[in-house]
Design a protein that fits this description.
Oligomer: single chain
Number of strands: 5
Strand content: 5-15%
Number of helices: 14
Structural class: alpha+beta
Strand order of the largest sheet: 1-2-3-5-4
Order of helices and strands: HHHHHHHHHHHHEHEEHEE
Length: 380
């Protein structure tokens, strides 16, 4: 994930309050322009063109790709400047609407680029005022204060929004960093406790029961040997859990961690596992839970599905993520196995982060596990 894309994702979220404020400001600016134009019966056609303000506000809300596009920013500013020129006066009713077109670049570009955006905006406005004003080729402000206000407002708007957005980004990055450190510290504490207590007791139990081998009656010897095998398996599972507990993602994006886990579990004797798609930046806590749920689904498919192909599809959905684990195996059993702690753990993890977990038959045979952390839910 490049710094540019990371910066875009961290602009207080795709559905953040600033986005609603921007759309509301655009609607209000349009309403003001229409009201002022209706007081000028010589230009009634411009009131119809003001509908662009409402349409663009809707597009800003509905299209994340559009509001992240520099081409769209330039086009939006050019259209609103054209409305100013068409009104025949640089003190146009569309001036406030044009100011709102500067908000998207101001909050999404780095702070160091904000002065350049402000300079270009003021320059473009001066050109429109000079070429298309009431006296083409020269500017005739009613007072010097009026001209200064029209030139200062874009600078204040751009720099103020850029500074606030940069402060929010830095605060969010710091929150994510603190959260990651807290989670790592908690994992380390749990790992130490398991290693120093539970694992030592497990080894002690293994030594005690191992000492009984070949010393008990034949009917019990098979039970003792089975207990020794189970304790050895439990110790191996605990070692694996301790290793993963210490560093589940190691700072990697979710899709890279899943691909690495799939590679670890794949062999010539197992189904083919393929991981596709990319995940957006997630908080360490959310990423760890989604990773654990996906790995449990993958492990279940490898152990029980008798599949030949397992696909893990990661989808970035605005400020959320969906992970689909699909196999072509025997499908879901009619009855859940008793003490199926794996599924219970998956459900608990999903609930803890506000995600939706569904386990259902796959079309064409097999199983489809979906963990959905997207704003609107759903899935393929």
């Amino acid at each position: 994930m490049t710094p540019w894309r990371t910066r875009q994702r961290l602009v207080a979220g795709e559905r953040a309050p600033w986005l609603l404020l921007l759309a509301a400001a655009r609607v209000v600016a349009t309403a003001i322009a229409v009201f002022l134009l209706l007081l000028q019966p010589v230009r009634p056609g411009l009131a119809i063109l003001a509908g662009y303000g409402l349409v663009s506000a809707a597009l800003i809300l509905l299209s994340p790709r559009l509001r992240r596009s520099p081409v769209a920013w330039v086009a939006d500013s050019a259209i609103t400047l054209a409305l100013i020129a068409a009104s025949g006066d640089w003190r146009s009713p569309f001036f406030m609407l044009w100011l709102t077109s500067l908000a998207l670049p101001a909050v999404q570009l780095p702070l160091r680029r904000a002065p350049l955006v402000a300079f270009l905006a003021v320059g473009a406005y001066l050109i429109v005022a000079f070429v298309g004003g009431p006296a083409p080729g020269r500017i005739q402000p009613l007072t010097s204060e009026t001209l200064v206000n029209h030139l200062v407002l874009p600078v204040v708007c751009v720099l103020g929004l850029a500074y606030a957005s940069d402060a929010l980004r830095r605060a969010q990055l710091e929150r994510v960093r603190r959260e990651r450190l807290a989670i790592e510290a908690e994992r380390q504490r749990i790992a130490w406790e398991l290693h120093d207590s539970a694992k030592q007791r497990l080894h002690a139990a293994h030594l005690i029961i191992s000492a009984l081998e070949d010393r008990v009656d034949p009917p019990l010897d098979a039970t003792v040997q089975r207990a020794v095998i189970e304790l050895e398996s439990a110790a191996a599972d605990m070692d694996t859990s301790l290793a993963e507990l210490r560093s589940p993602l190691e700072g990697r994006p979710l899709h890279e961690a899943l691909a690495a886990r799939a590679a670890e579990l794949s062999s010539r004797d197992t189904p083919r596992v393929e991981v596709t798609g990319t995940a957006p930046p997630l908080s360490p806590l959310v990423a760890a839970h989604v990773y654990r749920i996906s790995c449990e689904a993958l492990t279940n498919a490898l152990r029980h599905a008798e599949a030949t192909q397992i696909d893990i599809v990661v989808e970035a959905i605005d400020d959320g993520v969906r992970v689909n684990v699909l196999d072509d195996g025997v499908g879901i059993p009619l009855r859940q196995r008793p003490h199926s702690t794996g599924i219970l753990a998956m459900q608990s993890r999903a609930a803890s982060i506000g995600a939706t977990l569904s386990i259902r038959p796959r079309s064409g045979g097999g199983t489809h596990v979906l963990v959905d952390l997207a704003p609107n839910g759903g899935g393929p």
